Amino acid sequence: MYFRRPNFKMTFKIMKELIEKINEQYEIFATDAALQVESGNKAAGTRARKATLEMTKLMKEFRKVSVEAGKK
């Protein structure tokens, strides 16, 4: 019986895309958090918190994909 080998290239591509998205969200967070701290910009604080929520989702997805890749 033939079992299809998992597509490792696709898994690593997904992981790479997730890392890029996490980095983008971190840049948004860092910029907005600095604006809030330095100038008291409340809207920037809201954007910074939103970015942290998005990063959390992306990191959970990365962990899921990473664990699955480790099993293969």
Task: Explain this structure.
Belongs to the histone H1/H5 family. HCT subfamily. This protein is mainly α and 72 residues long. The chain contains two helices and no strands. It has helices spanning 8-39, 42-71. Helix 1 packs antiparallel against helix 2 (42-71). The longest helix is centred in the N-terminal third of the chain and has 32 residues, at 8-39. The mean pLDDT is 90.
Question: What is the H/E string?
Answer: HH
Strand content: under 5%
Q: Could you report the average pLDDT, rounded to the nearest whole number?
A: 90
Helix content: over 70%
The number of helical elements comes to 2
Summarize the structure.
With 72 residues, the protein is mostly helical. It has a domain at 42-72.
Question: Helices, strands, pairings?
Answer:
Elements: H1 8-39, H2 42-71
Helix pairs in contact: 1-2
